[in-house]
Amino acid sequence: MRFPRLLLLFAACVFFLPAGYAQSSDVTMSFLPTVTVPIGPTLGDGLPFFDIGGGGSIRGELAPGFARWLFGRAFIDYELLPINGSSESLSVVYGGGALGASFSPAPRFALRASAGGGIYMAVADVGTVRNPFVEGGAELLLRLSPTFAAGLGARYKYLTVPGDSLYQGLSVQLGVVYDLAGSRKGTDIRLTPDLGAVFPLFFSFYDKNPLGTALIVNDESLPIEKVKVLFYAKQYMDAPRLSAEFDKLAPGASKEIPVYALFNDAIFRVTEGTKAAGELTLEYYYLGRKTTKTVPITLNVQNRNAMTWDDDRKAAAFVTAKDPLVLGFAKGLASMVRNEAGTAAVSSEFRTALAIYQALRAYGLGYAVDPKTPYIALSEQEDAIDFLQFPSQTLAYRAGDCDDLSVLYAALLEAVGIETALVTTPGHIFVAFDSGLTPENAARAFSDSADTIVRNGKVWIPIEVTLVKDGFLKSWSVGAMEWRDGLSREQAGFYPIREAWKTYEPIGFAEGGALVSLPAQERLIEAYKSELDKFSRGQIMSRVAELQAQIKSGKEADKAANRLGILYAQFGLIAEARAQFQFAINKSNLQQALVNMGNVEFLDGQMAKAKTYYERALKANPADTAALVGLTRSLQALGDLSGFRDSLAKLQDSSPNAVDRYFPSGAATARASEAEERKVELWTE
After folding, report:
1. Which of 101, 365, 625, 644 has the smallest count of CB within 10 Å of its CB?
2. What is the DSSP code string of 514-532?
3. Is 584 a member of any domain?
4. What is the CB neighbour count within 10 angstroms for residue 447?
5. Which is nearest to 596 in space by CA: 448, 550, 574, 648?
6. Per-residue pLDDT tens for 318-362?
7. What is the enclosing helix (H) or strand (E) of 281?
8. Is the same domain home to 345 and 455?
9. What angle do CA 531, 535, 541 make, to 5 degrees?
């Protein structure tokens, strides 16, 4: 009676033990018809004792979750072994177990090998035998679906009797394998999101830059294929946004993917922090069956004025240069500068920036630290949330922190085409603008070049905007000092707004009901001219006296007069400049003075006279770039198409870079626009 008890134990292993592991492991049941091919023992003449027979096998297998390539097997077999040349046969019942390993060259195929043994009971007319047996086998498994597979294999069995073997043979099996957890197969995939706060200002930014990540873990024994991850927040998105798509994720593997979102502008209406519902959807195929898994997410949506300082360039998104309120404020002042006679100092960019700054002062703009979100504290914490005002808000409130004032001034300048940059030092932010001067002209125009920032051939003017009540010149002086101090400690950041816009696009924003009323134009003009005159006197007085003394000494008086003429011209003193250039021409017919006299006549609108001086200069030096540029521009202004094209061709041969800079449209037109402001960059010494 001992063998039936063993069979019951094996049956328990086959049917009950695997079920306890079905949640974490691969558990299968197999039903396999069998054809037996005897190998031994043999009769005296070499014939096999047994003939080909048949039977069947029921087995249960467990592949542990920690090593799915390994499996354990419990089985019950029955085989009928006909005795060769006789009507009798041997009935054999087996109960045993085996250990094996599996290899999958492709998701639907597995090659398996195993070895094991157990107890058999053989029954014949002459009696019953119970003894151990051993076996080994191999098979090919074809997975038809997550639930069913077909198996084809062979097992070698050796049935022992004391001192010999009762039977040796192959059992060829073809049957069906059923996965007890097949209905759940392909679902053991984990999707874990890790999303940060959503900042409405950057709602278009998240389309190309992730708002967080999600971790996908494949806990299945086979790969998942055609994987897609989509993010959707119904309240603020028109459709799900595809975040990732890839071909395969291997069993036991994990993959971290970025999560993108294409928000609509509804999210920009959030004026107070709120929470919103979202979801991540995972789509994939497991053995040809499509599975979809959705994970709900709670989004933390900040207010539209919020940002963090993990990347200082983010502030550029607040520089809304196309805001109607900003455009109206800035363009009126730029027009005032263009129309104001007798103030042609330095460059139009410089004068316009000065006028806008003085207008902010007259408007009553002030510096006020936000006690809840001070820049000096929050800028040092990359994850701290700051509150920045949009330019129209700062104009409406007439006050702001250093970041608010910097954003406003940058927006006003960008609104009239003046390039700006945000400048940072530890705990502080201010603005620099492109002066429109070359480094060479800036060195002539400014008494101290250390007060400027030279980057990529451009000369920038740093402005400490919090000192708006002290005027442009004081703000420039302090801004330059702060830049030099930060640079010396290698703690100065310089972020051109237009470069930052490529990553952090500004959003169209207009504050409903905001009203901005500029002071009277007479007051604005007076504030502008007063500060400009103060600047001009401070820049040229000492240098004028020095050059006049050199002229009186007679030592290279023509060259000194030429330099003095350039200084006068750069500050809009055309009559004084003309007198100095004429002195140099009369004294030595100085070629450089001829070029510069042509520049003065060009600035004064005397194109025919300018043409004459440029031509005289080119007789002395036919390859002079400044003279060629001046002559070409004069001919263009005069509408001399033939002369313009000839001169442009000579300039192309002599200096192609000058053509690209001053005549980007080539010979497309022979007449410059009447509205185009005349300015000269090429002065020669």
Report:
1. 101
2. ----PPPHHHHHHHHHHHH
3. no
4. 12
5. 574
6. 999 999 889 988 988 888 877 765 556 778 899 899 999 999 999
7. strand 274-286
8. yes
9. 140
Q: In what order do the strands lie in the sheet with 493-496?
A: 453-455, 458-463, 428-434, 420-425, 493-496
**Dihedrals φ, ψ of 562, to 5°?**
-60, -45
Report the C-alpha gap between 205 and 198 in whole angstroms. Answer: 11
Indicate the number of domains in the chain: 4
Query: How far apart, in whole angstroms, are the C-alpha atoms of residue 458 and residue 437?
Result: 7
Q: Is the alpha carbon torsion for 652, 656, 657, 663 positive or negative?
A: positive
Residue 477 has pLDDT above 90, yes or no: yes
3 state DSSP class of 591: helix
CATH number of the structural domain spanning residue 626: 1.25.40.10
Residues 6+ apart with CB under 8 A from 415: 321, 322, 323, 326, 327, 329, 330, 331
- Kindly report the backbone phi and psi dihedral angles of residue 45, in degrees, each rounded to the nearest multiple of 5, phi listed first: -90, 10
Can you give the CATH number for the domain in which 415 is found?
Answer: 3.10.620
Please state, in angstroms and rounded to a whole number, the distance separating the CA atoms of residues 643 and 646.
Answer: 5
The pTM of this model reads 0.66
Q: Determine, yes or no, domain membership for 546.
A: no
Instruction: Round to whole Å and give the CA distance between 456 and 448.
Output: 19
332 assigned to some structural domain? yes
CA-nearest of 161, 156, 157 to 131 is: 161
Burial environment of residue 319 by CB neighbours within 10 A (0 to 12, 13 to 18, 19 or more): buried
d(CA 69, CA 71): 7
Whether 320 and 425 share a structural domain: yes
CB 427 within 8 A of CB 376: yes
Asked which of 446, 478, 501 is the last residue of a domain, the reply is 501
CB under 8 Å to 485, separation ≥6 — which residues?
A: 425
Q: Hey, which residues does 79 pair with through a beta bridge? A: 55, 92
Which two three-digit tokens encode residue 546?
Answer: 């020095």
Name the phi and psi angles at 294, rounded to 5: -120, 130
| Cα(300)–Cα(662) distance, integer angstroms | 51
The two tokens of residue 619 are 């007789």
Residue 457 within a domain: yes
* pLDDT tens, residue by residue, 47-95: 888 999 999 999 999 988 778 789 999 999 999 999 887 888 999 999 9
Q: Which residues of 17-38 are buried (b: 16+ CB within 10 A; e: fewer)?
A: ebeebbeebbbbbbebebebeb
Evaluate whether 97 touches 183 at the Cβ level (below 8 Å). no
